[in-house]
């Protein structure tokens, strides 16, 4: 099984960089009011919980949400959960705990490193399904455009069948000036136990996933739609190409 690693990375980067572009006086006033700790939350409803191109909700809608706590030093911790359709082996809930450090290391360049722990508390078979995945990414921003290059590596663990898994990806984003519209594109490559072709029954343990989308923001709300696909066998509600809609709110 996979988890919503991309969403948590985006949230942690945003938390750590929040206020960096604000005037120094405004930033000081905010710090005096809120202190060195920032707490934020997010909730979402999606038509299909797709991650790395694979559906974890059997092609059905999913409810998601999380809480993040960030320190002004750049260190953060958080939790995130989603409804899933994992059968008796993984159950109906994914619950993640993560922590790391994110910050601007150069003008327009942000580094994020951390560790994710994926848990499936609703599974019924008593199997070892939980696993750890360290991650790192570098984000670049230039005006209204941004790009992120990242890697996640799940080392050999019993829950992965004694195998490991490497995931590398690139995300691109562009906010259309003077509008609430943002465009995004994604491509990723998996090598190991969680490769989409392998999960779909193909012997190939590597494969690509991709996506392209657009979103509209209004206050704390965001509505988005994306087209998602993967390499390998196409299984309806699992590894088939899909159009996914999401409405989310951040607090």
Give a concise summary.
This is TorF family putative porin. The protein is mainly β and about 250 residues long.
List keywords for this structure.
mainly beta; single chain; 4 helices; 251 residues; two-stranded antiparallel ribbon; 14 strands; CHP02001; 12-stranded antiparallel beta barrel; Porin; globular; 13% helix
How many domains, in number, for the residues?
Answer: 1
CATH homologous superfamily label:
monomeric porin ompg
Q: What average pLDDT do the residues reach?
A: 88
Strand neighbour order, sheet with most strands: 1-4-5-6-7-8-9-10-11-12-13-14
* Overall spatial form: globular
**Topology as a string of helices (H) and strands (E):** HHEEEEEHEEEEEEHEEE
First and last CA, distance = 28 Å
SS strand fraction: over 45%
- CATH architecture verdict: Beta Barrel
CATH topology: Porin
> Counting H and I runs of at least 4 residues, what is the number of helices?
4
Sheet of most strands? 12 strands, antiparallel, barrel
Low-pLDDT runs: 1-33
User: Approximately how much helix is present in the residues?
Assistant: 10-25%
Radius of gyration: 18 Å
| Class from helix and strand fractions | mainly beta
Question: How many extended strands?
Answer: 14
Please report the first level of CATH classification, the CATH class.
Mainly Beta
